[in-house]
Amino acid sequence: MKRFxxxxxxxxxxxxxxxxxxxxxxxxxxxxxxxSHDVLGKTGRATGFWLxxxxxxxxxxxxxxxxxxxxxxxxxRPPLEPSRLDAVSQKFMDVPKEVAKLNxxxxxxxxxxxxxxxxxxxxGNGAMFxxxxxxxxxxxxxVVWDNGGVVAALGEGAIALLDVRSSNGRxxxxxxxxxxxxxxxxxxxxxxxxxxxxxxxxxxxxxxxRGAIVENFYMWEPNVIVxxxxxxxxxxxxxxxxxxxxxxxxxxxx
Length: 254
Hints:
Strand content: 5-15%
Largest sheet: 7 strands, mixed
Number of strands: 9
Radius of gyration: 19 Å
Helix content: 25-40%
Number of domains: 1
Strand order of the largest sheet: 3-2-1-4-5-9-8
CATH superfamily: Class I glutamine amidotransferase (GATase) domain
Structural class: alpha/beta
CATH architecture: 3-Layer(aba) Sandwich
Shape: globular
Number of helices: 9
């Protein structure tokens, strides 16, 4: 009888432990963050976020049963990076409820007590301006990381990670292999815009200042790096693979 009671007690303790972990990580809810910035620096040209960098992860997350919320620094309708839509991006835009959600993004400042299993910062040239040292973006990424969730960034979205810290107080990026929108890709963007100086920082350099080991590949080619719960992709071409890796990491948090 005592042995039976002991077994019941052990099972109860294990169940309590699992509940604590689940409460810390939060429900099956994920946040995707896009830029609100719509002007490419000094050029005056339109800019925004890459729709494919949102559409691929969004599709994969929904198929895996995750609830996806979309936020931006200012909230409301975010600007799109001018580009042709691929099949997955067009599929997203063909669903009225998804477009409605995109047109009503949550302001980052309004996210205070939500519990997300993961956060993804989407790239696009606009992110270089309003993700840079953004206190709300840092705060949200910090909470996700501290709670054992997955922090991910595509392309220019990596600039949102600069001020996030590890539990030891050091910068999260310190000593970690990551990728981002490369210096070569930034230069190519400047040349396409007909400007020698857009007025933005070099993303690779900023990450390196935080101690990151930046490993970029050829321009506009897929490149994804998984480093524990930290996930980065170089550019729009990296979105399909990053989406799969993101879901896989999130599913391990169960």
